[in-house]
Amino acid sequence: MRSRLFSLLVLAALAAAPAAHAEVVPDEVIVKYEDGTTASERTASRSDAGVGIKDALPGGSQQVTIEDGKSVEATVAELESDPRVAYAAPNPIARASAFIPNDPGPGNFGDWQKVQWNFLGPTGVGAPEAWAIANAAGAPGGKGVTVAVLDTGVAYQSRGRYRLSPDFTREQFVSGYDFVDDDKFPNDENGHGTHVAG
User: Fold this and answer.
1) Which CATH number among 3.30.70.80, 1.10.357.140, 3.40.50.360, 3.30.70.890 corresponds to the domain 2-92?
2) Sign of the CA dihedral with 39 first, then 45, 50, and 51 last
3) Maximum Cα–Cα distance for the chain, whole Å?
4) Residue 115 has pLDDT above 50, yes or no
């Protein structure tokens, strides 16, 4: 029941989103089956819905392709009506922003702050407060914590034309993924992600 409610909320949010943010991969759907569903039940569900598996995704979801010519919306609705399915949703297309702030100088935030969140201030992410909590818990610097950086990438290794940032010589990284280039090398082509991670 909770997963159905979650799915309805996700679909409602997608339906209410502006057209510019609602771009989806044509003929593809993301589907997650209920816990305990067997491989043969998942195969039968895909066959019933006219989809074929394209890829397995982290967390147990699957990227499926529509093979029977139905629309994405009709396929999502059909999968959602299947009791074996925890949720189904269109596969949204995410693009990295091409905007580069025009920072007029050090110590002066400039107009970029109007279009991008900041780490400080009333609309920030609360980084100073998080640091104080970590210090109070006896874990300054976040020792033992894994942090995900969803950005333009990180200069975490020397590979091809990319170089390891000298700031990260002692850091350890878990395997990442580049959702823009669709590969397992999230190297930073922009610099912003390395700055945020650093």
Assistant:
1) 3.30.70.80
2) negative
3) 61
4) no
